[in-house]
């Protein structure tokens, strides 16, 4: 029996028994990043995972990692309960970890080593409380087989080449920017709200202009 066939006879748990996030702040940011990535990659052949167990060695169910947010390009877009790299024949291209007190060392040491071993292209760490990472936003890129720290640009941006995005901090808040347009990369809900507000503002402007023209017309008619 092959190694992979043996691996399929082994049970791979769907949970590590840990909560999604240490605090409400961390959970919200994990969810928001997931929504941004899903909206960014809509219609593309890509998988976006959030807090999903990722197994990377067939036949060894104890060897897994749980990325907070990750993207696998050139991968079927379908729901999964776990992710097995040997079945998918793919590894995460991009990972974003929302770092907390309990995950700081694992994010900076263990996970960094695992993602380097897997050959993931980019890895970002974000501390929404600015309490555990200095700086609170850090990035790494695989260069010649080694995860190398991404140097911020003069404007403080960290470039995510995998998705054509720029990441920066505004205070403690993470901002995700489209590298080409310079516009924020938003969730679907945020984009819909922004569009509705723009349409509302345009409608009010048009209505105000109509009132001004009607007033001008009234004055013209009142002239002797």
Describe the model:
It contains five helices and twelve strands. It has 224 residues and is an alpha+beta fold. The strands form three sheets. It has a six-stranded mixed β-sheet with strand order 1-4-6-7-8-9, sandwiched between helices. A hairpin with an 8-residue loop joins strand 2 (54-55) and strand 3. It is elongated. The mean pLDDT is 90.
Which helices and strands occur, and which strands form pairs?
Elements: H1 3-8, H2 24-40, E1 46-50, E2 54-55, E3 64-65, E4 69-73, E5 83-84, H3 85-88, E6 94-98, H4 104-118, E7 122-126, E8 137-143, E9 146-149, E10 158-160, E11 165-170, E12 173-178, H5 188-222
Radius of gyration, CA atoms, in whole angstroms:
23 Å
Going across the biggest sheet, name each strand in turn: 1-4-6-7-8-9
What's the SSE pattern? Answer: HHEEEEEHEHEEEEEEH
Supply the number of structural domains. 2
Backbone shape:
elongated
Give the fraction of residues assigned to helices.
Answer: 25-40%
Major β-sheet profile: 6 strands, mixed
Q: Which homologous superfamily in CATH is the superfamily of the largest domain?
A: tt1808, chain A
Q: Report the top-level CATH class of the largest domain.
A: Alpha Beta
Low-confidence spans: pLDDT under 50, at least 5 residues? none
Residue share in β-strands:
15-25%
Alpha-carbon distance between the two ends:
103 Å
Q: What is the residue-mean pLDDT, rounded to a whole number?
A: 90
CATH architecture of the largest domain: Alpha-Beta Complex
- CATH fold category name of the largest domain: tt1808, chain A
Number of strands: 12
Number of helical stretches of at least 4 residues:
5
């Amino acid at each position: 029996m092959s190694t992979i066939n043996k691996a399929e006879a082994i049970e791979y748990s769907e949970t590590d028994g840990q909560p999604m996030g240490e605090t409400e702040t961390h959970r919200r940011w994990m969810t928001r990043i997931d929504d941004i990535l899903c909206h960014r990659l809509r219609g593309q052949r890509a998988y976006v995972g959030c807090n999903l167990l990722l197994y990377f060695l067939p036949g060894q169910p104890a060897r897994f990692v749980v990325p907070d947010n990750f993207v696998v390009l050139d991968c079927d877009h379908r729901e999964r309960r776990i992710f097995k790299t040997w079945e998918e024949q793919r590894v995460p291209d991009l990972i974003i970890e929302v770092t907390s007190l309990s995950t700081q060392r694992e994010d900076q040491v263990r996970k960094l080593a695992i993602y380097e071993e897997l050959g993931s292209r980019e890895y970002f760490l974000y501390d929404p409380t600015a309490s555990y990472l200095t700086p609170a936003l850090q990035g790494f890129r695989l260069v010649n087989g080694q995860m190398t720290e991404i140097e911020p640009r003069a404007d403080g941006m960290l470039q995510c080449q995998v998705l054509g995005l720029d990441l920066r901090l505004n205070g403690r808040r993470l901002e995700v920017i489209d590298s080409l347009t310079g516009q924020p990369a938003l969730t679907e809900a945020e984009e819909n709200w922004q569009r509705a507000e723009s349409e509302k503002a345009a409608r009010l402007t048009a209505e105000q202009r109509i009132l001004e023209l009607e007033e001008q017309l009234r004055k013209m008619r009142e002239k002797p």
